[in-house]
């Protein structure tokens, strides 16, 4: 990097002459090395998935969860530096609780994304701090039903509330991705970490978006497939697949953010493994047509 | 200045609220109500403000805007309820700006309740929150003295309300037309004003629907028959 040694990368609060904040760009590098995480927003819910890199055989299988629940209806997954991610989750929980305290209602996903985007952005401003080394994916399902005010006495009358605007839908599944700069956008499919390029290419092929027909259960299977596909068995360390989902009140999770049940996950994982293997074998076939010397050189480069 | 023995429980555990106000404090000895109807919600109130036996204001406006289509009826101490409404109005204004969408009636009710409950020992405020929002239509929440929150189809409050429990129970109907609902509120308040010494003056109303807020004013001179301009 040409920027190294110029001095403009030494502190958060200094721009380079061409208007860049190098500390933020380095943070992005930290994310690019992290295990792949993805989020899918489909018509009836949200799926979060992560390639949890297993650093040691001594770690207990299935423990040390990487996807966190922030409120009943909200889940967060992240790529990059795990301790930074844990702090992000802690703060998200504080924000969700603070919202509940003041407004007596669950925080909408968009508002949590906004709050956390602001929080991460603040860490790009000051000499005393460094940016978050994570990109976080926030998924949530804002209730489509009328919710009671928290702490309201009794269930209230079943009648009365007249004058509703007819035909207007409220709530639904939402997905946001927040980058180290504090930048955040809403997505139908989001990916971060090492395998994001492959993952994004796959997400783009899915039937998402406004009139997307992909169902939640299909999305779980696609998520598993994409994580397996983006994982390189040769280069990358071993991993565990971790997945969570959120449906509406009439769906399998009843509006809550939950881990995908073991049976469904294992089923999805089995199929994903088969497809990933098939894809790799397909790649090998393609490679045979190429000049094999070039391949070796490329391979050497990556080892450096 | 003397203070009442506010917040204390008597031996039998029944809360006594006889001496809530300081000597000379302005009291909204009041008749207020809010009702849901087909298209939204209507708030109504008398206009009498008293300091003891003296009528400090005979044309008070006890219906206070906290957001475009969220209003409240105030009863109890004029100073306390004005202060609380001011705080909530500020909060809802902030909410609308930071979130880019208007607050719901629930949100308003939640903020009101938090203030009323957290300061229950120091406030004498009986509030009815009524509002219209796109998602929930017209809603009525009642926050009586202790700071509890009750969602209701209609709510009545203030000293004058004691006289019209029966009237309202008999005459309230689900899904009334606007005209019927205005008539219901007016007749109920007329009755409350008739029997309650600390209620009187004009009848004010605010109709909240998708179209916004619409004010009504009825004067005793015309036996509350004519709708005057505000």
UniProtKB/TrEMBL annotation, chain A:
Keywords: Proteasome
GO CC field: proteasome core complex, alpha-subunit complex
Pfam families xref list: Proteasome, Proteasome_A_N
Protease listed as a keyword: no
Biased composition (Acidic residues): 282-293
Region (Disordered): 266-304
Gene Ontology terms describing biological process: ubiquitin-dependent protein catabolic process
Compositionally biased region (Basic and acidic residues): 266-281, 294-304
InterPro entries (alphabetical): Ntn_hydrolases_N, Proteasome_alpha, Proteasome_alpha-type, Proteasome_asu_N, Proteasome_sua/b
SUPFAM superfamilies in alphabetical order: N-terminal nucleophile aminohydrolases (Ntn hydrolases) (SSF56235)
Domain annotation Proteasome alpha-type subunits: ranges: 8-30
CDD domains linked to this entry: proteasome_alpha_type_3 (cd03751)
Domain of life, per lineage: Eukaryota
PANTHER family associated with the record: PROTEASOME SUBUNIT ALPHA/BETA (PTHR11599)
Protein family according to the UniProt entry: Belongs to the peptidase T1A family.
Protein name, UniProt field: Nucleophile aminohydrolase
Organism from which the protein derives: Cercophora scortea
Source lineage: Eukaryota, Fungi, Dikarya, Ascomycota, Pezizomycotina
From TrEMBL, chain B:
Catalysis: reaction(s): Cleavage of peptide bonds with very broad specificity
GO biological process: proteolysis involved in protein catabolic process
Primary location recorded for the protein, binned into one broad class: cytoplasm
Sorted UniProt keywords: Cytoplasm, Hydrolase, Nucleus, Protease, Proteasome, Threonine protease, Zymogen
Compartments where found: Cytoplasm; Nucleus
List of catalytic residues: 30 (nucleophile)
Highest taxon of the lineage: Eukaryota
Sample GO molecular function, one term: threonine-type endopeptidase activity
Database matches in Gene3D superfamilies: Glutamine Phosphoribosylpyrophosphate, subunit 1, domain 1 (3.60.20.10)
GO cellular component: cytoplasm; nucleus; proteasome core complex, beta-subunit complex
InterPro entries recorded: Ntn_hydrolases_N, Pept_T1A_subB, Proteasome_bsu_CS, Proteasome_sua/b, Proteasome_suB-type
PANTHER family in alphabetical order: ATP-DEPENDENT PROTEASE SUBUNIT HSLV, METALLOPROTEASE TLDD
General function of this protein: Component of the proteasome, a multicatalytic proteinase complex which is characterized by its ability to cleave peptides with Arg, Phe, Tyr, Leu, and Glu adjacent to the leaving group at neutral or slightly basic pH. The proteasome has an ATP-dependent proteolytic activity.
Family in the record: Belongs to the peptidase T1B family.
Subunit description: Component of the proteasome complex.
UniProt-recorded name of the protein: Proteasome subunit beta
């Amino acid at each position: 990097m040409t920027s190294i040694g110029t001095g403009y990368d030494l502190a958060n609060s200094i721009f380079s002459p061409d208007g860049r904040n190098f500390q933020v760009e380095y943070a992005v590098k930290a994310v690019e090395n992290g295990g792949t995480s993805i989020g899918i927003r489909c018509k009836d819910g949200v799926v979060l998935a992560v390639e949890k890199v297993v650093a040691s055989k001594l770690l207990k299988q299935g423990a040390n969860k990487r996807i966190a629940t922030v409120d009943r209806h909200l889940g967060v997954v992240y790529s990059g530096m795990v301790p930074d991610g844990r702090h992000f989750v802690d703060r998200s929980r504080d924000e969700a609780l603070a919202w509940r305290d003041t407004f007596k209602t669950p925080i909408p996903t968009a508002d949590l994304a906004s709050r956390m985007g602001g929080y991460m952005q603040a860490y790009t401003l000051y000499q005393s701090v460094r940016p978050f080394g994570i990109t976080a994916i926030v998924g949530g399902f804002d209730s489509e039903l009328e919710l009671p005010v928290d702490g309201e006495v009794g269930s209230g009358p079943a009648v009365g509330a007249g004058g509703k605007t007819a035909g207007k839908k409220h709530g639904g599944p939402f997905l946001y991705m927040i980058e180290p700069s504090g930048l955040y956008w809403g997505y139908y499919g989001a990916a971060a970490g090492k395998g994001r390029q492959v993952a994004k290419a796959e997400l783009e092929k899915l039937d998402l978006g406004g009139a997307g027909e992909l169902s939640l259960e299909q999305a779980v299977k696609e998520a598993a497939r994409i994580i397996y596909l983006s994982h390189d068995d040769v280069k990358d360390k071993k991993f565990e697949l971790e997945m969570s989902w959120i449906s509406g009140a009439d769906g399998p999770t009843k509006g809550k953010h939950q881990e995908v049940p073991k049976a469904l996950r294992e089923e999805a994982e089995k199929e994903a493994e088969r497809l990933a293997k098939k894809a790799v074998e397909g790649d090998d076939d393609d490679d045979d047509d190429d000049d094999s010397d070039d391949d070796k050189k490329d391979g050497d480069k990556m080892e450096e | 200045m003397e203070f009442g023995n506010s917040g204390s429980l008597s031996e039998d555990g029944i809360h006594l609220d006889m001496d809530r106000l300081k000597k000379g404090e302005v009291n909204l000895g009041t008749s207020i109500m809010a009702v849901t109807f087909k298209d939204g919600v209507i708030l109504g109130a008398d206009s009498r403000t008293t300091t003891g036996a003296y009528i400090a204001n005979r044309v008070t406006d006890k219906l206070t805007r906290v957001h475009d289509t969220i209003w409240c009826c105030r009863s109890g101490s004029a100073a306390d309820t004005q202060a609380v409404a001011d705080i909530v109005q500020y909060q809802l204004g902030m909410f609308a700006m930071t979130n880019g969408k208007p607050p719901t009636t629930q949100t308003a009710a939640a903020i009101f309740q938090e203030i009323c409950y957290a300061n229950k020992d120091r406030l004498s405020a009986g509030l009815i929150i009524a509002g219209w929002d796109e998602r929930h239509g017209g809603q009525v929440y009642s926050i009586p003295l202790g700071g509890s929150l009750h969602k209701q189809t209609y709510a009545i409050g203030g000293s004058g309300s004691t006289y019209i429990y029966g009237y309202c129970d008999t005459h309230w109907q689900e899904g009334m037309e606007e005209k019927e609902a205005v008539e219901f509120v007016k007749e109920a308040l007329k009755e409350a004003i008739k029997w309650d010494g600390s209620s009187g003056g004009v009848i004010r109303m605010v109709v909240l629907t998708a179209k916004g807020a619409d004010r009504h004013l009825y004067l005793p001179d015309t036996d509350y028959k004519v709708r005057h301009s505000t």
